[in-house]
TrEMBL record:
The gene is thrB. It is found in: Cytoplasm. Pathway: Amino-acid biosynthesis; L-threonine biosynthesis; L-threonine from L-aspartate: step 4/5. Residues 208-285 form the GHMP kinase C-terminal domain. NCBIfam families: PRK01212.1-4, thrB. Keywords: Amino-acid biosynthesis, ATP-binding, Cytoplasm, Kinase, Nucleotide-binding, Threonine biosynthesis, Transferase. The keyword Lipid biosynthesis does not apply. HAMAP family: Homoser_kinase (MF_00384). PANTHER family: HOMOSERINE KINASE, HOMOSERINE/4-DIPHOSPHOCYTIDYL-2-C-METHYL-D-ERYTHRITOL KINASE. Residues 65-147 form the GHMP kinase N-terminal domain. Belongs to the GHMP kinase family. Homoserine kinase subfamily. Its main location: cytoplasm. This is Homoserine kinase.
């Protein structure tokens, strides 16, 4: 087997209370990639369809992730990559993470799976370092592992898969405004009040327990972020209204997807998620800002092999 085609999903990182540690994968949007094994220790991005992103391997996150894998391999192998991108870069839905994760999962299959999912996340994180300046794992982990993930520790890297209730749906709206990840990081405070930290880790624990017990009410109560959201949400027009109106029609809760500007809401069942989609659209129609909306079940599988 020398060639493989994969689907690689968009992801929602942070998930309200879990800044830099929690994330989950979506069924859509997602990209497709073709990865080919070659007998030359190099990485070539041959095709980039959908968005205008660099073809130079060291400037494309897929290339950077694969180069970091090749760095640890003694064999004379390398990879050629084609990317068919549907997830808009800079949307807050893990566009770069999808490319990094898809590339390393596909390459690992072609090599006979020498690496664990945690190893793959470590390589993919180098792609994230290129995209945002920090090697965070909260998008690449759910893309690789599927479902919900918790990055319990970065040093050493310890990624935990968390059970995902069957009826959990996400509605994600991407308003067409630009929020730079670097700006979204810079405005954060460097110091926290202990009382806020206590509330936040209570919520992270509650969210994990709620997911594992399929306790939708507990999931909803725990989707609260007292640290990052109060500051970052200022960058997103109509944020509070979207949240409020989504909850009125039955959403469990939600927040900023990644560093924004996308907003995610979680719901029990597709019917409620559809209602959330309608009120999100209505809110942004009123404000007069264009948007994309994605409705998706939480994707339990992550990167999926489409064919060889
Ligand atoms: P978000 O998570 O908000 O969607 P990203 O983490 O996807 O944002 O960051 C996008 C940045 O990464 C852009 O600056 C883009 O140019 C860069 N980039 C490099 N290679 C890729 C790739 N293969 N896919 C997506 N973005 C890439």
């Amino acid at each position: 087997m020398n060639e493989i085609r994969v689907f690689t999903p968009g992801t929602v990182a942070n998930v309200a209370c879990g800044f830099d540690v929690m994330g989950f994968a979506l069924d859509s949007p997602g990209d497709e990639m073709v990865v080919r094994k070659i007998t030359e220790k190099t990485v070539r991005i041959l095709k980039m369809e959908g968005f205008n992103l660099p073809l130079e391997a060291h400037k494309n996150v897929a290339g950077v992730a694969l180069l970091s894998m090749l760095n640890e391999l003694n064999d004379n192998v390398g990879f050629e990559v084609e990317i068919y991108k549907k997830i808009k870069p800079g949307s807050g839905i893990g566009s770069s993470a999808a490319s990094s994760a898809g590339a390393v999962v596909a390459a690992n299959k072609l090599l006979g799976e020498p690496y664990s999912n945690t190893d793959l996340a470590r390589f993919a994180m180098e792609g994230e370092r290129l995209a945002s300046g920090t090697a965070h794992a909260d998008n690449v982990a759910p893309a690789i592992f599927g479902g919900f993930t918790l990055v319990r520790s970065y040093h050493p890297l310890d990624i935990i898969s968390i059970d995902t209730p069957d009826e959990l749906y996400a509605t994600v709206i991407h308003p067409q405004i630009e929020v730079k990840t670097s700006d979204a990081r810079e405005i954060l405070k460097r110091n926290l009040l202990l009382k806020d930290a206590i509330r936040q880790w209570g919520n992270v624990g509650g969210l994990v327990a709620g997911l594992m017990r399929s306790d939708y009410e507990l999931i909803g109560r725990s989707l609260e972020d007292v640290i990052v959201e109060p500051i970052r949400s200022i960058l997103i027009p109509a944020f509070q209204e979207v949240k409020l109106r989504s909850k009125e029609v039955g959403a469990l809760g939600g927040g900023i997807s990644g560093s924004g500007p996308s907003i995610f809401m979680l719901s029990r069942g597709q019917e409620t998620a559809e209602k959330v989609k309608a009120v999100m659209a209505e809110t942004y129609d009123k404000v007069g800002i264009d948007y994309d909306i994605h409705l998706s079940k939480v994707n339990k599988q992550g990167v999926k092999i489409l064919g060889r």
